[in-house]
Design goal:
The complex is a heterodimer.
Chain A: H1 7-24, H2 30-51, H3 67-80, H4 85-96, H5 98-103, H6 109-137, H7 147-174, H8 177-192, H9 205-213, H10 215-229, H11 233-262
Helix pairs in contact in A: 1-6, 2-3, 2-6, 3-6, 3-7, 3-10, 4-6, 4-7, 4-8, 6-7, 7-8, 7-10, 7-11, 10-11
Chain B: E1 4-14, E2 19-30, E3 35-39, H1 46-53, E4 61-66, E5 69-70, H2 75-81, E6 82-85, H3 97-107, H4 112-125, H5 141-151, E7 159-163, H6 171-186, E8 190-195, H7 198-204, E9 207-212, E10 215-220, H8 222-229, E11 232-237, H9 241-250, E12 255-257, E13 260-265, H10 268-281, E14 288-292, H11 296-304, E15 319-320
Helix pairs in contact in B: 3-4, 8-11
Classes of the chains: A mainly alpha, B alpha/beta.
Amino acid sequence: MNTKITFLTQLQILTKRLILRVVRRPLAELPNIFISAFFLFVYDGALGGVFGGSAAGTPFDFANGNFVNFILPVSIVSASVSGGASGIYLVEDIESGVFKRYQSMPISKWAIILAPMLVGALRVLIQASLIMIIGKIIGADPAVGSIGFLMVLSIAFLWGMGFAGYSVAAGVRSGSSQGAQAASFLFFPALFLAPTFVPREALRGWLSTASAYNPTTYVIEAMRAIMVEGWLNDVIFKGYLAAGTFAILTLTFAVLSARKATEKA
Amino acid sequence: MLAVEVKNIKKTFQSKQATVEAVKDVSFEVRKGEIFGLLGPNGAGKSTTILMLTTLLQVTGGSAKILGYDVSSQDKLVREKIGVALQDTGIDNLLTARELFFTTARLWGYSKEDSINRTNELLELVGLTEASERRVKTYSGGMKRRLDLGLSLVHSPEVLFLDEPTTGLDPGSRRVLWEEIKRLRDGGVTVILTTQYLEEADELADRIAIIDNGLVVAEGTSDELKASIGGDVITFAFDSDSDLKLALNVITEGVQDKNLIRITVEDGARKIPQYVNQLTEKNIEISSVSASKPTLDDVFLKVTGYRLEGSDNKETNVEKVED
């Protein structure tokens, strides 16, 4: 016989359904992993020779002899944009009418909205971990020790949740998958208006100014401190703060947007 | 207790550009264990009415109760009692029917073991056991509708809302679904369905409300509605527009429908010669004339002033007189 189930059970069932959807479309996961790994290999191959071990003792020695440590954060930040899929999952359910079916059942609307965000978070963790494993294989070695991998992963998670929130809000407001995919358009300027290839001190003119206002800068710098410099607590703190603030702001935006969308007309 | 009690409900949508009264004033009652059909064309307000009754839309005015629970103030209780299969079918195409039934049963609070049993029961009920391991995207339209119907039955609802359940289906699939809906009614489920097919309303619904332009314009059993017209329907057909226009001046009480004029009279077959004489005296050429018992189509024409798009002019006791 059926009985009332808790919010957490509802969330678990809905999340499991979405994970099944992700598993059924494995090819959809490949592009983002591929681009992130591509960044790692190409940038290491193209720039590692100049800024890597051979740069020791020169003004270009900002990677402390290990360019993989320096460039890995760029790939991790790229992988974390996979959280943007959350909005797409939600909009697909709205477009297909599945969302309306759940609304006609005695299920918490927050469970319906939170489930895609959780799957987005899981996606960020898996993709960032895979990139980190690739990085480790080709020589990444955090300056703060192995715990550095977990620290970088946690910043990536917060950053990815930021994209998840943004995509959910954009998706719900636009009511289309294209709207949700707009998260990826935000990503590229955010990534390249930052100290992507060289430290911020080496940037000049407008790019130097733009990067100071770009939260991606602080995320990358915190990851780099962990990987290259060591315990630069204030830099690491700023990274967590930037990623955490981005996540809180966009998730709040997502919740407000979703509340409006689920209100009865 | 009534299964559904709708009193003067209204729904108004307001936007910056305009205010639209989708449902102006709809009232009806549905007894437990009957199939109630809301018949009307697209845009009549049928789906909006269903969305309000299933708690998915706020009621602007009036009130509605499902099994005694108010749809506005007791929406959670209403949702526990009803099953809903809407027009824009909410089915996850990437999952299999078995996965969908199991997930839905779990969400309704069944244990894992009970969910497995309920899944098997429902797959059997809607005839999808053999296809149960296939992803839904490989299903035909008819299979999807049956799955949709099955998903709305997982928690054994007392009242079932079906919004145009057979739209787009081929006649064979439509008939299969009709039989399933009748079986549910025979099992004690109250069914409220919307349709734009006269034949469907005639065949399935124990009682029918015709909705037009946000209003209930007629209500009753199919026989009651047909009897309300009284007598027989004589249908005159004309090849030329000029003859049609002239004929309208002769048969002043007739209703025009494309190139036809219909008139409802007692003892229609006997009166045909009288009308034919009046028309031929005016040199009006009739291409054909027939008398028939009123159909739901005639009822619809009488109460709305137009025919339902796509409805067939199915006549019984057709008697054609070629001029």
